[in-house]
Amino acid sequence: MKNTVLKIFVVLGLLLASSPGHAWHDQTHLVVAKVAGLRSWYNAAGPDLAKIKTGNIESYNHWFNNNAEAEVTPRMVFEQIERYNERNKLLDSEGHIYGAIIASLRAYEKDLRAGKYAKYHLAYCAHYIADLSQPLHNIPYDNFNQKVHDINDGIVEETILNEPQKIIQHMYVIKLHQDNFEEDLAREIARIANISRKLGYKLRAENRSITKEEAYVQLGHSASLFKAVLQHHQ
Q: What's the fold here for domain 20-233?
């Protein structure tokens, strides 16, 4: 019995150690939401604040470790939706950011239909879509990832609030059709996730951090996708 309990604690400890603690820093999130057109862009850093009190209930919505280093598919995105706001460290140790994006929009629509104040859900969605372009949130949280994670998160933090054009110049049109919205969105999530994870592998192979220019390009993907989401929901 004692050995069983010890093994459980060891497994849980390893899983906790394999969880990324951060994402793009606050001002980076705010600018992505702002240039995409969210009126309450100032709420976009909120999901990271929520992790202080909700811990892994919220944290697992921000990343997907992809330990198998597999190609991300729309099917994978949909399979993650039901895990939104879950924290099963044994069955879902990799996280579920892809499904969280769609799940947060479903929560928005549900509260909107119920006559509730629903806009906070859009702030969560904005945050998740910004994290989608962070390369290190799409690859295994290995020694390399742990070593450079915080540096990568803050690579443009000190200047981006005064230089939103650095992201805007990399934005492009994404079309999400009204009658096929979730399917189109899942496809775009998978596309950007694959771009991000491939850059993550490149950083790991070259043993370096992301450059500012690479970060601007990545953030342009996020801002473009969230702008398309807002065009559907606002």
A: P1 Nuclease (1.10.575)
> Environment class of residue 206 by beta-carbon count within 10 Å: exposed (0-12), middle (13-18) or buried (19+)?
exposed
Burial state string for 181-194 with b = 16 or more CB within 10 A and e = fewer than 16: beebbbebbbebbe
Query: Model's pTM, two decimal places?
Result: 0.91
DSSP letters spanning 133-198:
T-GGGSS---HHHHHHHHHHHTTTTTTGGG-THHHHTT-------GGGHHHHHHHHHHHHHHHHHH
Tens digit of each residue's pLDDT (9 = 90 or more) over 34-82: 999 999 999 999 999 999 998 889 999 999 999 999 999 999 999 999 9
Cα 233 versus chain centre, distance: 19
